[in-house]
Amino acid sequence: MKRTINDYFISFKRGKNQQTRKVKIFLEKVLAWSLVGQMLMAPAVSEMALAANKSVTNPEVTAVIALLPIDEAPIHLLEVNKPRIDVRVGESNTEREVREQKEKEERARREAEEKAQATKAEAERFVLARSGRSNTGMSVNEALGLTAKYAEQYGVDYNLMSTIIACESGYNQYAKNKYSTASGYGQFIASTWRSTMRSMGRDVNTSPFEGEINIEATAYVLSVQGTRPWNASKGCWAR
């Protein structure tokens, strides 16, 4: 069968298109490898970073290797796509994992301490605001020091205990409820005070206005009965 002029023209055009594609692919590879050549110092830079105990990343290489077939891209360049890892010289994977776990625990500890300090500061600001009433006896700061001492001794929350005392008596050692026998820092009524002194092995005739003893008794009752004895003022201290 004879080929027409049109058939020859179509064959020529198809061949030309194929050649164009081959040239385009060749030029893309040349461009990609020329860019890779400029970054062949990346391993050396990485070694310098390792020596300085710094994390190794080179995100600029990602754009370059995207131009290359996956089987032609250098392995050490492909690895930049992995998650950022803090690498130390001479450190095994196990050692790194142990170190990172310790660092994580230390961060959590510091955050917990900062939160506790902030909560304590807030509680003490509340205490000082509530102690603006007439206050005699030991200073508020001295009373707060004893609160911290006995809160730790009896295993109760310092912030809660200090807030309860602030609500009950305004940290006034000689506070006295004019409608009942509630007296002292923790505002113990007479019967509760005597039973508490007995439970603590103290003289039942001890005065509730004995500041340190009243603070210790407050911590003791809080450790044994919880906040129930102070439910009447819950609207104040349960903030």
Query: Helix coverage percent of residues?
Result: 55-70%
Main pleated-sheet profile: none
Q: β content, as a range?
A: under 5%
Radius of gyration of CA atoms, rounded to a whole number: 39 Å
Structural class: mainly alpha
Number of domains: 2
> What is the residue-averaged pLDDT?
75
Oligomer: single chain
Question: What is the CATH architecture annotation of the largest domain?
Answer: Orthogonal Bundle
Q: Runs with pLDDT <50, length 5+?
A: 52-65, 70-81
Task: Please tally the helical runs, counting DSSP H or I stretches of 4 or more residues.
Answer: 10
- Order of secondary-structure elements: HHHHHHHHHH
State the name of the first-level CATH class of the largest domain.
Mainly Alpha
Total beta-strand segments:
0
Morphology = rod-shaped
Euclidean distance between termini CA atoms: 99 Å
CATH topology of the largest domain: Lysozyme
Describe the protein's topology.
Elements lengths: L4 H34 L3 H10 L8 H6 L9 H4 L14 H38 L9 H15 L3 H12 L20 H10 L11 H15 L8 H4 L2
Helix pairs in contact: 5-7, 6-9
Features:
mainly alpha, Lysozyme, 10 helices, 239 residues
What do these coordinates show?
This protein has 239 residues and is mainly alpha-helical. It contains ten helices and no strands. Helix 6 (140-154) runs parallel beside helix 9 (211-225). The longest helix is centred in the middle third of the chain and has 38 residues, at 93-130. The protein is rod-shaped and about 110 Å long. Residues 52-65 and 70-81 have low confidence and may be disordered.
